Amino acid sequence: MDIKKVLIIDDEIDICLLVSSILRKEGYETTVANTLAEGEQKFVEFNPQVVFLDLNLPDGVGFSIIPKLKKLNAEIRINIVSAYDGITERSEAKKHGIQHFISKPLNRDAVIQAIKPI
Domain spans of the chain? Predict the structure, then answer.
């Protein structure tokens, strides 16, 4: 699958701008959402191949949206981006089939690695 569209769901504007800037320089089209509700709406409208998802959002926990996104697109690749990166969070991410868990503060290399084909 040729990845072209990426959705970033994070309530921190700086993180959205950073990830978006990194990915745009690499040739990806990006859009951002700052809540789970907005993320679900943008997912339907934008139809991305990859999502970067924060865990701690104003309207809930990021894990709660994963089943909805996978129901809409079984092939979606979801990467977690979070300051909460303990054993519990990483274990939960594995249960949801998450390939990449990026700890905040993040860096360019981690974002690039997460976007590359598996």
Answer: 5-115
Name the packing angle between helices 108-115 and 13-25 (round to 10°): 60
Cα separation of 105 and 59, whole Å? 22
Identify the pLDDT of residue 84: 87
Contact 7, 38 (CB under 8 A): no
CB 56 within 8 A of CB 62: yes
DSSP 81: E
Q: Which pLDDT tens digit goes with each residue over 49-99?
A: 999 999 999 999 999 999 999 999 999 999 999 998 889 999 999 999 998
Q: What would the two tokens of residue 45 be? A: 């409208």
* CATH 3.40.50.2300 matches 5-115: yes
What is the predicted pLDDT for the residue at 1? 52
